[in-house]
Write a structure and sequence with these properties.
heterodimer, A: alpha/beta, ABC transporter transmembrane region fold, 4-stranded antiparallel sheet, elongated, B: 586 residues, 12 strands
Chain lengths: 572, 586
């Protein structure tokens, strides 16, 4: 939490003024019992006019109090919303700065929760804290001090009561924090199940698992329910306990007050003032207790946000020695090991690609094709060895500059909410419609575009749900081509395309006039057999590099793959 | 706003009905604790009256009163604690019930609804809206009853003590109510607006962070940041207003309270002095009155707090109820047939279907498949292959025409038995959070470990599973990156291998699996398909060459039908598609 406080900067004024005005209000409230004591001791029976005067003062104190709080509430609202807005903005930027390694580790669902519900909770926590956290202690301790000014002996009751109350309040608070954390974890579980059932709805229905899924979900909500009730039982002690303590204290107070009155040191009106001060403490404690519950929840949320901030991207820009300038892409004995896995995913990768060359990468499922491709854009760092783009180590590039040079089509075809044009401009924000249309044509998506009345202004829904898988894939290819990247990387990007479209696509890419370096990852030999160089991967190792014909002769794995696709059904 | 709020409130009460005994108990306890709470100040006043001045304090009378106060306070504490627990129980149970209802609804919603809504939005209704709604409910419970009871109780006790002062208090009451209702009215609108803006922001976050890897590929971090900050700026403006207005409720009622307090002090003091001739009052009773005046405002504070909270809660509740009220899939016919080991004859008769009424997709589709036949569906992207599967599985209903299995219209067959007769592997793999074993067992929960391993072996998934540190007990989820796309697909196929349904739908089932592995699985697939009606969608023509019937689809229609050789000889659309696969072959 403490480290989040720096986002309060810019709201210092509000953070001081809000509690300050609250303090003023509290101060005026503390004067009221004294006025009442005077009404009884001075006004009643002696000077009736004093009563009217005193009551006007009380009403006036109320009016000033109201004005003060209005300021306080406004500043508190402004500061809490502004503070959390800053945190969210910084958090968003922090999350987007994380590298793939951290994203894999945290999972996107968690990150989304931190940005939304956790942030909201922090906001209401801060708001309430600014409004009440200063007011309550001031009323509590102020009441004690006032009691001492009235009469020191009975006031001793306050010095016993207040620590006792603090013990109850803080004891319960400390006891429940970890429990609330557990509850939150269970909420996450419920959330995940709900989400999972939406994404997997077809499979669940296909297997007719609706009922068993319901049972599972009901069990999760029941678990949550039990945990909530358990915490609830403990926090429910707070109000009743404080109430009992204060009222017993009042009884003691009246007794000690009576002793003082009996010996002539105190008046009846002053006993009433003491009683009023004790009552004020109770009212304030009720508020403090609910504030503390909100605060404990908020603190837990703040800490979870803080934890995300503490995860640093494992990648930094480091000056490294240059490689051979003549190559567009060069791998030198590169190894890759994922954090979650005990074994190397890539071992001893060593190859180079000249500008304008087309490189095919082929291999079985899990052979490391995508991992290799991901290293070119430095989405993962080599565990050892080096990767160069245009002769410069990828670690020495500003990541944005490096990725600007690449046109990557990821395996999963994801488009974002917005027009087709907006999506295409991801490749190059200054792209003209003409350039976009050109890219769409190369990507074989012209007919899809033509079928949309709105053309480039066609609104794509979140996740591209209003397009079919194949349509999405072609647009993601076009998106990668828009910026005229020096290096084009197709990561198994034609899986949702039929062979006809796929071959047209390859033809169109091969005829791009500025001759980019092209990487084609595929499981189909047909897609890559014309490449200038084919890299055959098996279980994370290169088992063959060369042209189609050479590999057919020399590389067992390659010829096996080839035969699996081209035998038992003669080629035309 | 009023009417819809009312109906939402009615729904809430329906959920409460189940817990009527607890509600009743809670009300009784609330009344009990309120009565004692109000009685204590009277006893305190009595005690204070015994303190007159030096040497005139009646300790003998005072001590029993003081003990009584202590014991009563303990009673109140106990009553309150039990009441709090009851209230917690009620609200948490309602939360659970509402969530369960919402989830049950999801399981019954037509695919059409789910496909056209954002997952994040539905989930947020189930989680954060329900949370906010119950938070409001919890506050409502604990404070509404006690609040109302305190107000009524206080009035009664006050009338008993002094009718005149009571009038002073009552005169101020409407003012308090007026202010509270004015504020809550304006905050309701603001809260609703806030909830909208928050929804926008959440779906933006969902999109950007959910697809963070793509964002990074295109270095769109800054652009996304800008979009986010824009959305947040809008939210911020509304939030500040909403929070400010809602936080005015307490101070204004506190101000009214201060006026009441001053009024009571004024009239009370004069009554004590007998300036006002009606009803004499002791100083102790005045102290009791002042303490009432303090407590009298508190429930107004709380009730108005409840009002704002409830407004917000109702806004959330109505969104949750909207979800729960969505139309479910049309129920199965009462005498719907339970499909048991069907022969697998599938007939499509003049089927027409489209996702949106203004655009035809499938029209006049006729097809007759005999049991055990292998049907391959090919065609360019977007030709309607996936739609056909949606119709076969009855994820969507045909607009006109009919589909029948073994001669029975599928609308007269229970959905469950229809879907259960099909084994489906989709291109988009989906794993459930849980162990690999659980995932394979999805279609046959009673399967033994040996059967699971056998199925995995047949799909050549066993070798990679056993290399995982925890083997079949490895926890996987749809989002986990520990498995490759192809490995996930192998697991999905293993499910079908284990379940062995009578009919098969394979939609690009092997698209992410390398061809070497695929070739190895092929054998098992062939074994599996033998005697089973199967619909196979594939781009790899080599995998469907041996189909009994090949449907060549284009733009929602079947353009060609026949076996491989027939279609090749026809030199039509299929021939063109087929050649394109090898067009680059030297």
């Amino acid at each position: 939490m403490t480290k989040l406080l720096k986002y309060m900067k810019g709201y210092t004024k509000e953070c001081i003024l809000s509690p300050f005005f609250k303090m003023l209000e509290a101060f005026f409230e503390l004067l009221v019992p004294l006025v009442v004591a005077n009404i009884i001791d001075v006004g009643i029976g002696k000077t009736p006019s004093y009563i009217v005067y005193a009551c006007l003062i009380m009403a006036g104190l109320g009016a000033i109090g109201l004005t003060c709080t209005m300021f306080a509430q406004y500043f508190a609202a402004k500061a809490s919303v502004g503070f959390v807005s800053k945190i969210k903005s910084a958090l968003f930027s922090h999350i987007t700065s994380l590298s793939y390694t951290e994203i894999d580790k945290l999972g996107t669902a968690t990150l989304i929760t931190r940005m939304s519900s956790d942030a909201n909770q922090v906001q209401s926590g801060v708001n309430l804290t600014l409004r009440l956290f200063m007011r309550s202690p001031i009323i509590v301790f102020g009441a004690m001090i006032m009691a001492f000014t009235v009469s020191p002996t009975p006031a001793v009751v306050f010095t016993v009561t207040i620590p006792l109350l603090a013990l109850v309040v803080f004891g319960i608070m400390c006891g429940t924090i970890p429990l609330y954390k557990g509850v939150q974890g269970k909420v996450d579980g419920v959330l995940n199940t709900a989400r999972e059932n939406l994404t997997g709805i077809r499979v669940i229905r296909a297997f007719g698992l609706e009922e068993s899924e319901k049972t599972k979900f009901h069990k999760k909500t029941l678990d949550l329910n039990k945990a909530q009730n358990f915490v609830g039982r403990i926090s429910a002690i707070m109000n009743p306990a404080t109430y009992a303590i204060v009222n017993i204290a009042i009884a003691v107070l009246i007794y000690t007050g009576a002793l003082e009155v009996n010996s002539g040191n105190l008046t009846q009106g002053e006993v009433i003032a003491l009683y009023n001060y004790m009552s004020q403490i109770l009212i304030e404690l009720v508020k403090l207790a609910s504030l503390i519950i909100t605060m404990t929840k908020s603190l837990a949320c703040a800490n979870r946000i803080q934890n995300v901030f503490e995860i640093k991207s494992s990648q930094e820009v480091i000056e490294c020695k240059d490689g051979d300038k003549k190559y567009s892409v060069q791998f030198k004995n590169a190894y890759l090991k994922y954090e979650s896995s005990p074994e190397y995913s890539l071992e001893n990768i060593d190859f180079s690609a000249l500008p304008g060359e087309t490189i095919g990468i082929i291999g079985g499922t899990g052979s490391g094709k995508s991992s290799l491709i991901n290293m070119i854009g430095r989405f993962y760092d080599a565990s050892s060895g080096e990767v160069f783009v245009n002769g410069k180590n990828v670690k020495s590039y500003d990541p944005a500059k490096l990725r600007e040079m690449l046109g990557i089509v990821p395996q999963r075809a994801v488009l974002f909410k917005g027009t087709i044009r907006d999506n295409m401009k991801w490749g190059d924000e200054n792209a003209t419609d003409e350039e976009i249309l050109k890219a769409i044509e190369i990507a074989q998506a012209k007919d899809v575009l033509d079928s949309k009345e709105e053309g480039l202004d066609f609104l794509i829904e979140q996740g591209g749900k209003n397009l079919s898988g194949g349509q999405r894939q072609r647009f993601t290819i076009a998106r990668a081509l828009v910026g005229k990247p020096e290096i084009i990387i197709l990561d198994d990007s034609s899986s949702a395309l039929d062979y006809l479209t796929d071959s047209k696509l390859r033809g169109a890419i091969a005829s791009i006039d500025y001759k980019p370096t092209v990487f084609i990852v595929s499981q189909r030999t047909a897609s890559i057999q014309h490449a200038d160089k084919i890299i055959v991967l098996d279980d994370g190792k290169i088992v063959g590099i060369g042209k189609h014909k050479e590999l057919l002769k020399d590389c067992v794995v390659y010829s096996e793959i080839y035969n699996s696709q081209f035998t038992n059904g003669g080629e035309n | 706003m009023k009417k819809s709020n009312l109906s939402t409130l009615k729904r809430v009460f329906k959920y409460l009905k189940k817990h009527w005994a607890l509600v009743l108990l809670s009300v009784l306890f609330a009344l009990g604790s309120v009565l004692i709470t109000l009685y204590i100040p009277i006893r305190i006043g009595n005690a204070i009256d015994l303190i007159i001045e030096a040497g005139k304090v009646d300790f003998d009378k005072m001590m029993p009163i003081l003990f009584e106060i202590g014991i009563l306070a303990l009673c109140v504490a106990l009553l309150q604690w039990v009441m709090n627990n009851i209230n917690n129980k009620i609200t948490y149970n309602v939360t659970m019930d509402v969530r369960n209802d919402a989830f049950d609804k999801i399981e019954g919603l037509p695919l059409k609804f789910v496909d056209s809504h954002q997952y994040g939005e539905i989930v947020s209704k189930m989680i954060s809206d329900v949370d906010q709604f119950t938070d409001g409910l919890l506050m409502g419970f604990t404070q509404f009853f006690t609040g109302v009871a305190t107000i009524i109780g206080t009035l009664c006790f006050m009338l008993y003590l002094s009718p005149i002062i009571t009038i002073v208090v009552v005169v101020f009451t409407p003012l308090s109510l007026l202010i509270a209702s004015f504020i809550s009215k304006s905050t309701f609108k603001l809260f609703k607006k806030q909830s909208e803006k928050r929804g926008n922001e959440t779906s933006l976050v969902d999109e950007a962070i959910g697809n963070l890897k793509v964002v990074k590929v295109f270095s769109q971090e800054d652009e996304m940041q800008q979009k986010f900050e824009l959305a947040d700026e809008e939210l911020k403006k509304v939030s500040i207003k909403a929070i400010f207005f809602s936080s005015l409720v307490n101070p204004t009622t506190r101000f009214v309270n201060a006026l009441v307090y001053a009024g009571v002090a004024l009239v009370g003091a004069f009554t004590v002095m007998n300036v006002i001739p009606i009803g004499a009052l002791s100083i102790g009773a005045l102290a009791t009155f002042l303490s009432y005046a303090n407590q009298y405002a508190k429930p107004f504070n709380e009730i108005s707090g409840v009002v704002t909270e409830l407004q917000n809660a109702l806004a959330c509740a109505s969104r949750v109820f909207d979800l729960i009220d969505e139309d479910e899939e049309i129920k199965d016919n009462e005498n719907a047939l339970v499909l048991n080991k069907p022969n697998g004859d599938v007939d499509l008769c003049d089927v027409a279907f489209s996702y949106s009424p203004d655009k035809d997709l499938i029209k006049g589709l006729n097809l007759s498949v005999k049991g055990g036949m292998r049907v391959a569906i090919v065609g360019p992207t977007g030709c309607g292959k996936t739609t056909l599967i949606n119709l076969l599985m009855r994820f969507y209903d045909v607009n006109s025409g009919s589909i029948s299995v073994d001669g029975t219209d599928i609308r007269d067959i229970t959905r469950h038995s229809l879907r259960h007769s099909y084994g489906m592997v989709l291109q988009e793999t989906w794993l459930q959070g849980g162990t690999i074993r659980d995932n394979i067992k999805m279609g046959k929960p009673e399967a033994t470990d040996e059967e699971v391993i056998q199925a995995a072996k047949e799909c050549h998934a066993h070798s990679f599973i056993k290399r995982l540190p925890l083997g079949y007990d490895t926890i996987v989820s749809d989002e986990s990156n520990s498995l490759s796309q192809g490995q996930k697909q192998l697991l999905c196929i293993s499910r079908i291998m284990l379940a062995l349904p009578e009919m098969l739908i394979l939609d690009e089932a092997t698209s992410s699996i390398d061809t070497r592995t695929e070739l190895k699985i092929q054998e098992s697939f062939l074994k599996l398909m033998k005697g089973r009606t199967s619909f196979v969608v594939a781009h790899r023509l080599s995998t469907i060459r041996e189909a009994d019937v090949i449907l060549v689809m284009n733009k929602g229609n079947i353009v060609e039908m026949g076996n491989h050789n027939e279609l090749i000889n026809k030199k039509g659309f299929y021939w063109e598609l087929y050649n394109s696969q090898f067009s680059t072959t030297e």
